[in-house]
């Protein structure tokens, strides 16, 4: 499972304050903690700082890279901010994200065309948020093909079918995981990803729902998650799900987590 650690996001009050105060120790600790917890990428988002986002993005990346060798997920819709992030990271970075929205497509696609960058591809266009499996698959197919035509490797594409709250429509959960299954079956070698906390919006015991939804999605092929890797119960559920669906050869990762007392039951 590819884990994108979500904690260095300026929309989180403590992180936003640390950025404003130039508290590099706070940022570095978040990077270290996520690395030690099992993250694969460190997501970096400074989007609340309009006009200063690029400067803060560079500051964050420089501090993170002092304490971890993990690649960065550059989380911004602004092509200028993304370009500055790429300059600090090279082609091992992940770009979060592109979509079928024309403005975003036109500005982000030239940055990743022909490169080895990883790209999160949102199932979103200019018309509306997709509501059904069919809506999502239609957008995904067009977007995937546009990326491939521009020299983006299939294995570098991380499709996000977009999680929406079941408190709004009870079918959204099943629609999402059915889309994941279809994408993984139809495009061998591609990845699927999501930030899954939206599924529980408006409901009690959100973490409980999120963890169970993660297991359901993994069983349908989801292989990447944007989450808090310090959530030990979530990481334990992911570890168990990976083992149970046959992604953990000889149960090595599960047994390793058990021996290191990382399984929260």
UniProtKB/TrEMBL annotation:
GO terms for molecular function: methyltransferase activity. PROSITE patterns: PTERIN_BINDING. Keywords: Cobalamin, Cobalt, Metal-binding, Methyltransferase, Transferase. InterPro entries: Dihydropteroate_synth-like_sf, Met_Synthase/Corrinoid, Pterin-binding_dom. Residues 1-259 form the Pterin-binding domain. It holds the Pfam family Pterin_bind. GO terms for biological process: methylation. NCBIfam families: PRK07535.1 (NF005719). Belongs to the vitamin-B12 dependent methionine synthase family. This is Methyltetrahydrofolate cobalamin methyltransferase. It comes from Acetobacterium malicum. The lineage of its organism: Bacteria, Bacillati, Bacillota, Clostridia, Eubacteriales.
